[in-house]
Amino acid sequence: MEKKREILKRENLPKHVAIIMDGNRRWAKKQGKKTLLGHRFGVETMLNIVEESAQLDLDNLTVYAFSTENWGREKTEVNYLMNLLLEFLKSQIDRLDENNIKLNFLGNLQDLPKNIAKKVEDALIRTENNDKMNFNICMSYGSRDEILRAVKNICLDVKSDEITVDDITKDVFGNYLYTKDIADPDLMIRTSGEIRLSNFLLYQMAYAEMYFTDVLWPDFTIEEYYKALEEYLRRNRRFGKN
Q1: What are 92-137's pLDDT values in tens digits?
Q2: Which of 48, 59, 70, 97 is catalytic?
Q3: For the segment 60-81, what is each residue's pLDDT rounded down to a tens digit?
């Protein structure tokens, strides 16, 4: 594993990987477990990928943990996922901090229960000076919601004469997104066989390479991660120029 990691690090790896962690419930059902337990196993997979990404010297790893649409799921599942987030923040913040990983949360955090929002704030402060890698968790996130929010805030700033219409460039618009100061993803991975973006980083992934796998998220091992990275290295990124 260490030898392969060193080989990959010498190649032109992506600096920002974004992941749609899909298939937790189907995995649990396949294993004969309660469906909600799939999310718990999915957290362990996520932590393994986070640490491996840091070892590979990625600048950013972004995961889609909870969408704006997920609030519409059954209350039992939503509560389970919120408690799982709270547990993650309590039990794993030391692990992230020791690995010099900076934690970011992207999304409408005002939607979170107050006790969880406070833990999120504490985690952000705890890791704000870490510089090994940014671990970005999209929570209560939806790309359409993000873009609409950016447009509204730009309109407010134009109305208050903070900026003019002529000031609005691609870079200026990007400063109104949750991903301000975060480079666009180079590679997007989605597990579980679904082939769609599900309202995830639609603006930011204009030129990202896409990798879809049938593997369910809890079964997404480091070896499976390497398959995605190796596929990325075989791609010829042209950014529409030729």
Answers
A1: 999 999 999 999 999 999 999 999 999 999 999 999 999 999 999 9
A2: 70
A3: 999 999 999 999 999 999 999 9
157 carries an active-site annotation: no
**Per-residue H/E/C for 207-222:** CCEEEECCCCHHHCCH
Catalytic residue selected from 22, 60, 104, 186: 22
pLDDT in tens, 163-174: 999 999 999 999
Q: Which domains does the chain have, with CATH numbers?
A: 2-141+186-193+202-230 (3.40.1180.10), 143-182 (no CATH)
70 catalytic per annotation: yes
> At 62, is the secondary structure helix, strand, or coil?
strand
